[in-house]
Structure formats: C-alpha cells, structure tokens
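queue> pop job 88
queue> type: inverse folding (structure -> sequence)
queue> payload:
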C-alpha cells in the first residue's frame, strides 16, 4: 500500500491542471484542482491528502494530483494543512480558539484551505469537506461507506469553523472510520497522538506494576489473600503499602517522559474481586456502605497518594482513576476529597441501566447513576464515562440503544462532563454499528439533530429499501425503550424481554420487504448482514426460551425441553465456530469457546439437564 501511494505521487506530481472555474475540483472528466501539501508535511497530513484523492476518485473516476508547495501550482488548489498559500485564505487570527482538534475549512477564489488547531483538525476538515459532497462512513469496511457518483465536484461557498463538543471521544477502533467520524482513539504508531490515555483507559494496574517485575522483588505490593501474598494475575494491590504510591508514580513518570503531551495517565485495579485482606487495608474501608461503595475509601486514598507523588515532577498532569463495581462511588468519609489532579472514568455497568437515558426519571437505576455523577462532581470536574455500547454479556445480539445515546450525550455536555470511551468490536459490528455512529456524531457536536441524522442514514444506506429498514430499526429501539427491564446487557436473563416471537416475526416482515425493494448489490449485501444478525438473535433467544420453559416444567417434559435447549445451543455454537465467514461482523466466535460467556451457558444447561434426570 505504501509503495503504490508513493508511485502515485511521483506520477501525479508532474501532471498539470488546466485553469478552471473557481470552486471546481473535478469536471469534464478531468482534474481541475491540485491537492497541495507542505514539503514538510507529516504522516497524518499525507494520509489526509491521499484519502481525499482516493475518495474523489471513487466519486468521479478522476484522480486529483497531489503536489507539494515548493513548486508553482496553477489552477485551483486544495491546501491540506499549512502551505505557503494557506495564510492568504485563513489568516492566523482566524485560527484562535480552535484548540487541539478544531478546524477551519474555507474557500477563497480558486483556493480551498483546510487548517486545524492541531494535526487532527486538518483530517477532520477533510472529513467535513467530503461529507458536504455526500460521503458517509457508517461502519468500517466497503459495505459501510456511502460514496456518491458525481460527474462534477464543485464547491461554490465554503466557510466552516468547528470545534468538538467533548475532548474525549473514544468510539471505534478502526483508524480510518475514527478519522472520518472525528473520534480520537488512534492506534497507528506512525500518526501523532490524538487524545492519549496511557497506559490504557482501564484496568491499568498490571501495566504499571507488572507481575513479571514485582512479584519477586516486591511481593508485598500485592493483595494478601488467605494469609499469603497472591501471585494471581487478577489480584489487587495492597493499597496500604507505604512504598507503593511512590513506585506507581515513578512508573507513571517514565511513561510521561517518553510520551510528552499525554492527556491522561491512568490508574485502575484489575478486574475481579481479589481484594487485599491485610489488617491495614481493612482499616481503610468504611462500614455500613452499599456494595458499590465497599472499597471506595481505600481506592481514593491510594489514588490521592499516587497523585501527590506524581505532582512532585508533573504538577499539572491529570491522573485518570477508575470508578467501577465495589468502588464506583466516592467514599462516604467527608474528610477525604479527591486530589486536584484527579479525573475519574465512571463505569456505566450492570448496577445501572442503558435501556433508558441517564436523566429518565422513571428509571430507578439511572436515578442512582445521576446521584453518582453528582457525588463525583464534588471531587473533580474532570469526569468521563466507560460505556457499554457493546456489551460482552449481551452475546452479540442487536443492542438498540440509539434512543439512550441520543439523550445521554447532550445531557453529559449540559453537565460539563468530558466525554467517554465505549467497548467496541468489529466482530459484531452489524448488530451495533448505528449506536456507535450516532455516538460519534454527538460527541463531535452534541447539538446534532439525531432524527434528521437517522432519516439521512436510512435513505443513504438502504436507498429504495429505506422505508422497511427504518421500520426495522425503530421497532427494535421502541422495544428496548418501552421495556420495563433495566439493563446494560445480561442476555441470558434479559434477552427474551426484547426479542420475543412477536417482535422477531415483525422484523422478518420488514426484512422480507426490504429484500424485494433493494436493487443495488451493495444494499442487498447490507440487508443480508442485518438478516444474518436477526437469524442469530432468533436462534440464541430460542435457547433461553426453551431453558426457561424447561425450568417451569416437571417430569419427562422438563428433561425433554432441557435436552432440546442444549441441542440447539450446541448446534448454534458449532455453526458460529465453523462458519466464520457466515457470521463475520455478526457474532464473535471467541465467546463460544473455552470457558467464555456462551460456553458457560452451555455448561449450565448440561447441569440443568443432569439435575432434571437427563444423561449429561
């Protein structure tokens, strides 16, 4: 890929572009503009120019040449970043207040300039330009993109200035999709950092105090479990150890010196419940507090001690700390306040609800979640969220929570919060892509009209099949929104509340009509992926239906139904594991093998069958 791009540059740099009307980039079957880069352009600027070139080619069949500004360029010019001509279009004074990621996109005469407050602003300006020409990227990969076919590219009026609504927009893990939708979790090491959280957003204990180093040299750093210092990879730290905070801060300092400009340095414990049982750690805990506050005091004390040590060398560095499970709330103790450099990432996990918006007064779990946010605001104004727009224990079912996201993100902005990270995988992207797309758009601009955004999506993505596919998506959304269940996942106990037989039959009707209307092969392929997701949902939920009916039955019928549920579960697992192409983007095979998720549900069915008197 790198070689072919370089060759294209060499070939195209010698091409000339004939004079054209200002604002015309492609017309009469030829390029009428040149993409211009500084001779000192960085990797991201070059990538941005190449992406513009390739998208113009997809639109028109014409390759717009790329040149550098160390030579004379006649005709219309698209100035990608700072060049010798950019200031004449966008003076430096017009760039004030852009921050690291804002941009200005402007046409003046024959020049169109893209500038940013930092390198990513230029990439986002390019995305805006392409969107104004009709391009969209709803999910990663060719099936997810909508690129209109154009005979001419003309931009008569263009003067756009934008800045993001939130600094942290960690949605998606595909760099191309992320750049085009202006999220800022970027993994390519050749590109400059966008919004950098090191050594990760959560469960960073093992990367700061790795067992490979410390289990031998400092076993006392690890939790005391049953009278012994644990060597288990899931164990927590000994929060009361007096040397531990300085060592964590020292390790953080190494990371920060190697990665200047890091936005957040992160500290949070391992997953699981292997907490230190030593007497000194127990003294740090508070009695008579709810489960989600059980270890909050010991965690806040450790966080503060580390932040104090880190501030000795990095006085203004924000330190991201975790709030999850049994340490979700800040401590009850009024004497303990968060260090001035603390930022917190609050996990919106299973004690709360994603089926309904955070500010829904009828949702009891989220009323408590709102109280949780208010409690943390007394300790820090730097609050972000760990969201579950993809939830592992939802077992790759469609997760129709656009209605929740559409309410939550503007609400978070109103509260002055700083953004979010969400779990994400392309392994089931066809079941979840619309949630991620809407989240990305709102994180960039919280005032986005989601209803208009969705109407545009249905028309662009499904074309002639827009009407039945709109009904399909809306039926799913309404079912979750009106559900009396409060959940962020938990398919084995919650899926039937959404995917009942009536809804599945309704969805099949919409899909059948969509297939008869779809004329374009790309649209047909999209509907096929959605159909596959629906097929998978029906098979999975039927396993849980049979299980529940079996549990309510007696005698031989109970055995028969457990056997049928188990047989269907085993058949589904075999199908998913052996037909990966069939389930690509629909179901993640990892959760069907070993001891993970669905595999554990199969083990439970075997136990149920045996207990009922079957032969398992």
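queue> result:
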């Amino acid at each position: 890929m790198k070689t072919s791009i370089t060759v294209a540059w060499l070939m195209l740099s010698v091409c000339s572009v004939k004079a054209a009307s200002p604002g015309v980039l492609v017309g009469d079957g030829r390029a009428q503009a040149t993409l211009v880069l500084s001779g000192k352009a960085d990797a991201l600027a070059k990538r941005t120019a190449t992406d513009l070139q390739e998208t113009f080619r997809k639109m028109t069949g014409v390759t717009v040449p790329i040149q550098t500004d160390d030579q004379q360029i006649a005709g219309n010019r698209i100035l990608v970043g700072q060049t010798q001509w950019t200031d004449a279009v966008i003076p430096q004074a017009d760039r004030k207040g852009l921050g690291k990621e804002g941009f200005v996109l402007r046409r003046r005469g024959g020049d169109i300039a893209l500038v940013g407050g930092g390198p990513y602003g230029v990439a986002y300006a390019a995305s805006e330009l392409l969107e104004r020409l009709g391009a969209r990227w709803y999910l990663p990969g060719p099936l997810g993109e909508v690129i209109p076919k154009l005979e001419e590219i003309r931009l008569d009026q263009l003067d756009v200035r934008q800045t993001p609504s939130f600094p942290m927009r960690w949605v998606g893990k595909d760099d191309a999709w992320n750049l085009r939708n202006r999220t800022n979790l970027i993994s390519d090491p050749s590109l400059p950092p966008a919004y950098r959280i090191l050594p990760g957003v959560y469960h960073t204990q093992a990367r700061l105090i790795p067992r490979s180093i410390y289990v031998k040299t400092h076993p006392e750093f690890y939790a005391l479990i049953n009278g012994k210092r644990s060597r288990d990879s899931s164990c927590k730290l000994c929060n009361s150890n007096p040397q531990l905070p300085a060592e964590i801060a020292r390790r953080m300092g190494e990371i920060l010196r190697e990665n200047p400009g890091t936005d957040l340095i992160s500290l949070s414990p391992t997953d699981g419940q292997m907490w230190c049982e030593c007497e000194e750690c127990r003294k740090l805990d508070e009695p008579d507090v709810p489960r989600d506050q059980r270890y909050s005091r010991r965690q806040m004390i450790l966080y503060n001690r580390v932040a104090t040590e880190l501030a000795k060398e990095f006085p203004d560095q924000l330190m991201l700390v975790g709030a999850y499970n049994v340490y979700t709330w800040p401590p009850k103790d009024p004497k303990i306040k968060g260090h001035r450099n603390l930022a917190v990432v609050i996990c919106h996990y299973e004690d709360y609800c994603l089926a309904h918006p955070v500010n829904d007064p009828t949702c009891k779990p989220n009323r408590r979640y709102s109280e949780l946010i208010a409690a943390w605001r007394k300790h820090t104004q730097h609050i972000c969220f760990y969201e579950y727009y993809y939830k592992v224990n939802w077992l790759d079912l469609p997760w129709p929570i656009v209605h929740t996201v559409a309410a939550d993100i503007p609400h978070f902005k109103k509260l002055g919060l700083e953004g979010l990270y969400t779990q994400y995988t392309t392994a089931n992207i066809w079941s979840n892509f619309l949630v991620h797309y809407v989240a990305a758009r709102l994180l960039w601009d919280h005032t986005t009209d989601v209803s208009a955004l969705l109407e545009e999506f249905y028309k662009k993505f499904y074309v002639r099949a827009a009407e039945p596919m709109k009904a399909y998506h809306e039926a799913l959304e309404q079912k979750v929104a009106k559900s009396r269940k409060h959940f962020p996942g938990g398919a084995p106990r919650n899926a039937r509340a959404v995917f009942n037989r009536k809804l599945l039959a309704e969805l099949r009707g919409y899909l059948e009509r969509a297939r008869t209307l779809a004329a374009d092969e790309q649209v047909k392929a999209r509907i096929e992926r959605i159909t596959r997701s629906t097929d998978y949902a029906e098979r999975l939920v039927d396993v849980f239906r049979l299980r529940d009916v079996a549990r309510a039955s007696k005698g031989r019928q109970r055995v028969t139904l457990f056997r049928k549920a188990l047989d269907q579960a085993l058949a589904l697992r075999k199908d998913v594991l052996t037909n990966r192409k069939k389930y690509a983007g629909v179901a993640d095979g990892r959760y069907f093998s070993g001891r993970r998720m669905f595999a554990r549900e199969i083990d439970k069915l075997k136990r149920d069958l045996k207990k009922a008197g079957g032969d398992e």
